[in-house]
Structures are given as structure tokens and as C-alpha cells.
Specification:
The protein has about 260 residues and is mainly beta. Helices cover about 10% and strands about 30% of the residues. The chain has five helices and 15 strands. The strands form two sheets. Strands 2, 3, 4, 5, 6, 7, 9, 10, 11, 12, 13, 14 and 15 form a 13-stranded mixed β-sheet that branches. The chain is globular, with a radius of gyration of 18 Å. Bound molecules: 3,5-dimethylbenzenesulfonamide (MJ2) and zinc ion (ZN).
Length: about 260
């Protein structure tokens, strides 16, 4: 327990500003979304998700989360519409979660967190030639955030939780082809959107955030499967269970507010 506290103090969110001064920037993520203060913008339309099943490639443990990578060499799997000027290509998705019974989402809604949060990361391949270039540009990335609420078993999440044992340790990866993330979407795509950042270092302020209002429901058992993952590598003797890998909400600063579409 004390090891975790020391680890948090040295490497956790409150220490990131030492190596990444942008951590105290003007458009940091996540934030606490206050629905009653969200502005309506009639020019803001619905988002469209075109996810082609055959672009998923692999699932990996990168020491911070479990990530499913996609083939982003063309526009087969994209998000478009809403606040976006052009299609953004799906590159990867990953999760953030808490400890047993604790909250683990990054964004909160009127101060309330969810059990977990799924991030589908897309990049602007129309304006930028590589993901790396897009990741440092103010309109380079579009991340779709989906809350996971604890309840009944999710019908499709087992396709991910069933293979987590294969990527238990940092640096491990395995084949994960033919997965369509459409099965992880809630029934409606009403969303809040605001300009923000990556929520883990390097914290680039390059993300147009689109956070869905409706959570998906997953069971405590399925959430518990994420906690078999380790922050540490197989060879490290200090076993560090991967949990509470979320950044707390950051100051809204001069961002007037979030915009809502429903
Ligand atoms: C460091 C980092 C990289 C990527 C692609 C995405 C994020 S996040 N959690 O903001 O979606 C963080
Ligand atoms: Zn994330």
C-alpha cells in the first residue's frame, strides 16, 4: 500500500508537471462536465461512426492501460460530423478504471464519476501526414469518450476481457483481428464536446473531446478482469496491479464551456 502511495507521489498525476509543464496548461483533460452549464450550438450536428471490422490488429499492455491498435493506413474506420471538419481515422482504443468498487472514469458529470471510461482515439489524416504530427496539433486528434457503468454483464465486452490474461504484463501483445468497436457503443450518440488534451503524458493539447452522454453497462466481474493486468513487466519482482489509471478532472480555465448535442 505504501509502495503505491510513494509510486503515486513520484510518478502520479500531481508530479507530471515537473517533466511536462503543459500539465498546468489552458486546455487540459479530463474535466468535470456540468450539463446545466453546457452551451447549445444549433450548428453542431450528430457524429457519424464508420467502423469497419477488419481494421483491428492487436491488443497490448503498454504499462498504462490495455490498448487495441487498428490499421490506420486508409479511411475504412473513421469518426466524422459533430465538431469535426473532416473524417478522423481510428488508431486505437483503451480503457481507464479504478480499484475494486471505486470509480475510475477520467471525465466526471456534475462531480460524479463512472466505474471506467473507454477512449477511442482518432487522428486528422486529411490535414496531417502522420499520427505523430497530428498528436501535437491543436486539431490533430478526436477522442470519443464512453463511460462504463457497473450493472449487468456487457454482451460483447467478454471478447476483450477473455484475452486480457494474454497481455497481463507491461510490454506484452497478441493478435486481435476482426474486432469491431461498434459493439461497444451505447444506443444513442448524444454528446458533449470541448477542446482538451491527452490525459496522460505527454499531455499534448491536441484533442477535440467528444464524450457520449449515455454510458454502456458492464458487470463488476468484467471490470474485475481489467485488474488482472499489471503495470509492471514479467521480469520485475514488484508486482504492481494495473488499477486507478485515471487522471482526475483538471481546471476548465478560459474554456467557456462544453457544447452539447442531443
Ligand atoms: C498518452 C495518450 C495517448 C493517446 C493516444 C491517448 C491518450 S487519452 N487517455 O487522452 O485518450 C493519452
Ligand atoms: Zn485515455
Amino acid at each position: 500500500f505504501t509502495l503505491t502511495l510513494i509510486h503515486q507521489a513520484l510518478f502520479g498525476p500531481s508530479a507530471w508537471h515537473r517533466h511536462y509543464p503543459v500539465a498546468k496548461g489552458s486546455r487540459q483533460s479530463p474535466i468535470d462536465i456540468i450539463p446545466d452549464e453546457a452551451r447549445r450550438d444549433s450548428s453542431l450536428g450528430p457524429i457519424f461512426l464508420k467502423y469497419d471490422r477488419c481494421t483491428s490488429l492487436s491488443i497490448a499492455n503498454n504499462g498504462h492501460s490495455v490498448v487495441v491498435e487498428f490499421d490506420d493506413s486508409d479511411d475504412r474506420s473513421v469518426i466524422q460530423g459533430g465538431p469535426l471538419d473532416n473524417p478522423y481515422r481510428l488508431k486505437q482504443f483503451h480503457f481507464h478504471w479504478g480499484g475494486k468498487g471505486c470509480e475510475g472514469s477520467e471525465h466526471t458529470v456534475a462531480g460524479v464519476g463512472y466505474a471506467s471510461e473507454l477512449h477511442l482515439v482518432h487522428w486528422n489524416a486529411v490535414k496531417y501526414t502522420t499520427y505523430e504530427d497530428a498528436a501535437t496539433a491543436p486539431d490533430g486528434l478526436a477522442v470519443l469518450g464512453i463511460f462504463l457503468e457497473q450493472g449487468d454483464d456487457h454482451r460483447w465486452l467478454h471478447t476483450i476481457t477473455d484475452v486480457l490474461y494474454m497481455v497481463k504484463f507491461k510490454g506484452s501483445a497478441t493478435n486481435f483481428k476482426g474486432f469491431n468497436p461498434k459493439c461497444l457503443l451505447p444506443s444513442n450518440l448524444h454528446y458533449w464536446t470541448y477542446l482538451g488534451s491527452l490525459t496522460t503524458p505527454p499531455l499534448h493539447e491536441s484533442v477535440i473531446w467528444i464524450v457520449l452522454k449515455e454510458p454502456i453497462v458492464v458487470s463488476e466481474k468484467q471490470l474485475g478482469m481489467f485488474r488482472i493486468l499489471q503495470f509492471s513487466g514479467e521480469e520485475e519482482d514488484q508486482r504492481m496491479r494495473m488499477e486507478n489509471n485515471f487522471r482526475p478532472p483538471q481546471p476548465l480555465k478560459e474554456r467557456i464551456s462544453v457544447v452539447v448535442h442531443d
